[in-house]
Amino acid sequence: MCINEHIVIVGAGPAGCAAAIQCTRLGVPPLVLDRTGQVGGLISNAFLVENYPGLEPMRGTEFADRLTQHFARFGIPITRGVVTALARTSHQLSALSQEGITVCGDFGKIHATSVIVAVGTESVRLDVPGAAELEGNGLFYEVRHFLEFHSRLGQTVVIGGGEAAFDYALSLARADAKVILLVRAPSPRAHGRLVEMVNREPAIKVVLHTRPRAIRANPANCAGFVIETSGPNGSSTLQADGILVAIGRRSTAPSLLPGLEADPRNPIMTRDPGIFVVGDARAGSLGQLAIAVGDGLQAAEAAVRHVRENPAVRR
Ligand SMILES: Cc1cc2nc3c(=O)[nH]c(=O)nc-3n(C[C@H](O)[C@H](O)[C@H](O)COP(=O)(O)OP(=O)(O)OC[C@H]3O[C@@H](n4cnc5c(N)ncnc54)[C@H](O)[C@@H]3O)c2cc1C
Predict the structure, then answer these.
(1) Rounded mean pLDDT of 89-114?
(2) Which residue's CA lies nearest to atom 22 of ligand 1?
């Protein structure tokens, strides 16, 4: 497939959704690609979204459903596709030629005048013996994938000390798991209401200053694991029926176009005219919904302006 588009949006999380709706409102409907073929992104993992101005508190899955409905109201189609690279090119539109960007992926190539990169982040992987082998088979990095896999939730170990780990622990306790939250530092990185909610939850035990050293299948329980840990009192072992890891996230945008650099005058702009990076992909780590949405709106305005200022020219 090789097609021409004015604006391509890569990623249909909150940032990509906001950008797509605004581009459509401004009269330049974009092509929206997402690797999942669905709208919503990372927020469907959230236990409770309560900081989005004007909205009542709701589960992350409900927020994602509302984004899907909002998309549908504007009649914006979503195309399943994994983008693997972006390249700056000059391309031919029948008798016209135009500088632009080639979007490459499992669908082939798409030529665009402007690209909004809203690809979010990927999880930092746990680097201990056994973790890579068990990934997807009992050990997960997103709670939605964990809950899809595990039909019976027994004792679950959540590894991490930030907001995502605390949030995951609450989701698992709500799903009737007994949760051990393993925090490497002497005190958690998360703070405020999330920590208070975890401390009030009897099904969650927080173990501080303790790090995993190795993970292996439990020979006494065909569906379970043994986690070797070390802490101030020396080494120990923990039994788990499932493991969920949240030890950080990093932007996936640099892998699409090496050398992609933010414009110091405006962080959503890049030094490549017509390419914008928004949301968590711009922040470089786990961010916030409202910031992602604000980025998406700003990028839509800039992308539409770029399209209008760069019409195709007759050769
Ligand atoms: C457990 C948890 C709880 C949270 N709770 C809150 C909260 O209460 N309040 C709040 O404000 N924020 C919360 N957040 C943060 C919020 O989810 C993110 O800030 C927000 O989702 C970022 O939106 P985004 O569109 O930038 O990225 P994402 O939501 O990560 O979306 C990126 C999209 O890009 C797609 N994609 C990625 N790579 C490619 C590719 N190569 N090709 C095609 N598609 C691709 C993905 O499939 C995904 O749909 C929470 C996050 C987590 C993990």
Answers:
(1) 82
(2) 280
Our CA angle for 243, 60, 210, nearest 5°, is: 30
Distance in Å, CA 63 to ligand 1 centroid: 12
How does pLDDT run across 156-178, given as a tens digit for each residue? 999 999 999 999 999 999 999 99
CB within 6 Å of ligand 1 — which residues?
Answer: 10-16, 33-36, 41-43, 45-46, 49, 51, 82-83, 118-121, 164, 167-168, 252, 279-281, 286-290, 292
3-state secondary structure 154-175: CEEEEECCCHHHHHHHHHHHHC
> Checking phi first, is residue 280 left (phi over 0); if not, alpha (psi -120 to 50) or beta?
alpha
Position in ligand 1 atom list of the atom nearest CA 46: 3
Q: What residue ranges define each of the domains in the chain, with the CATH number in brackets?
A: 2-122+249-314 (3.50.50.60), 125-245 (3.50.50.60)
Q: pLDDT tens digit string along 219-240?
A: 777 779 999 999 988 999 999 9
pLDDT > 90 in the chain, percent: 83
Q: Enter the pTM of the model.
A: 0.95
Beta carbons of 230 and 213 less than 8 angstroms apart: yes
Q: Tell how far the Cα of 43 is from the centroid of ligand 1, in angstroms.
A: 5
Model confidence at 315, pLDDT cuts 50, 70, 90, reads very low
